[in-house]
Amino acid sequence: MRFLLTFFLLSCSLFASSAPYSRCEQIPVHHVEDMSDEYLTGYVQALVDMHYYEFQVQTVVVGGTVYVFNLPNNELFRYSILRFIQDIPCICYVEAICGCKEDFLCALAECDPDAANRLAQCISTPPCCYQVIWLPQNTVLFQPLIADPRQVINSAAFRLNDNVIGKHVGAVSFGGDFIIVRLKDVLWWRGDMDLGVQAGIFSVFDLDHVEACMVNTDFFVAAMATYAFDRWSFRARWWHLSCHLGDEFLICNPDYDRRNLSDEGIDLFASYQMGHAVRIYGGIGYIYSRDKEFPEDPLYFEAGTEIRVFGIGNRCTRLYTQPFLAMHFRSWEEHDFDIDQTYALGVEWSPLLGVGRKLRIFLEYHNGYSKEGQFVRERSDYLAAKLEYGF
After folding, report:
1. What DSSP element (H or E) covers 363?
2. Strand partners, 388
3. Cβ atoms 237, 81 nearer than 8 A
4. Are residues 119 and 160 in the same domain?
5. 8, containing H or E segment
6. In terms of residue numbers, what domain contains 122?
7. Calpha distance 113→121 (Å, rounded)
8. What does the alpha-carbon distance between residue 91 and residue 104 come to, in Å, rounded to a whole number?
9. Do residue 278 and residue 336 come from a single domain?
10. What's the DSSP call for residue 185?
């Protein structure tokens, strides 16, 4: 007990004595003053490569100003990269350059030949040009749909008053986007394209049951292609869904009419980033193959929006904190095109602004139809607290 009290008082004194140190404050003052343009060029380039290596961005530092070349042709990624560089210590200004690095060095040589020569040696690169990036890890081109109850991501949720599954329900999902290759400077718009797969598992549990029985598990897999340029991003999928009732549920309900639900379909989604705060998206899908035990009407539409405002960066944790409000709507021919709606309100944390992996905590409200296996024809209404990790 005495140890815990001593530890608590010591911690309080440390936090009270000084504010959290930023990365800039942790660097000795004389070291900051003596940093040359060549050193800063290598320092900034290393940080950018560490977090955004998929985009092959190049930087040059001259007099405290960072000139950035080869930025991706997508507004969301451009803003994220420029904001990341702006937050690096010792950087006064950041400027995006449309031309190539070589043209910039030629222009600098006319004003300061020595500086241009030194920088050319620091940022020299192999003559080959990388237009294909294998297995990108840090970013995806089509951002996830936060309010979509069937977004393939790692999540855990506690639902209240789900009249289909139970009064108290546990819901988990595991999966994500697995990008195999990224192609740069593709098609007429000179955007980037990802080719990969999307795979996930969705399970729900009736927590009021003595053994918290698993009611249903759905398995989802899709071949996926995404494309992004300017403020637009697109996603095309060829997917398969297989649904299975839980053993405990069937034991407790021996007379339940079990059907085999197995679908194959295609869909296409488009997303538009309206500035840095608002995103709107929509898509159309078609189920072209269905098991005869559970036939379904094929056509469906989906749309939604995400609003992010009042975001801040924490200099201690080096994380961006971003509140959000998201809405997702689905209209399916199987439901006579009734509107199925889901709302999400919460906060997300990420080391990169707007892109990369994030941790989300939010409240979710769903009103419409169930998403669980062969219960999809039953009306569902619930409130959930949800935790997510993924893109």
Report:
1. strand 358-369
2. 155, 360
3. no
4. no
5. helix 2-17
6. 20-128
7. 13
8. 19
9. yes
10. E
Q: Give Cα separations from 65 to 53, 55, 85, 114, 352 (angstroms).
A: 21, 21, 10, 17, 21
In this structure, are residues 145 and 304 in contact, taking their beta carbons and an 8 Å threshold? yes
State if pTM tops 0.70. Answer: yes
Question: How many domains are contained in the chain?
Answer: 2
Give the pLDDT confidence of 77-121 residue by residue, as tens digits: 999 899 888 887 778 889 888 766 777 777 777 777 776 776 666
Contact 67, 93 (CB under 8 A): no
- Which of 53, 55, 31, 39 is CA-nearest to residue 123? 39
Pairing of the two strands 261-274 and 278-290: antiparallel
Domain end marker among 95, 128, 161? 128
What number is the average pLDDT over the span 336-359?
92
Q: What are the counts of helices (DSSP H) followed by strands (DSSP E) for the chain?
A: 7, 17
**Shared domain check, 156 and 43:** no
Cα dihedral value 286, 197, 177, 377, nearest 10: 30
- What confidence category does residue 304 fall into, taking pLDDT thresholds of 50, 70 and 90? very high
Round to whole Å and give the CA distance between 105 and 249.
Answer: 69
> With 0-12 CB in 10 A as exposed, 13-18 as middle and 19+ as buried, what is 225?
middle
**Domain boundary residue among 104, 128, 152?**
128
Residue 358 neighbours by CB distance under 10 Å = 23
Rounded Cα distance between 148 and 343, Å, is: 9
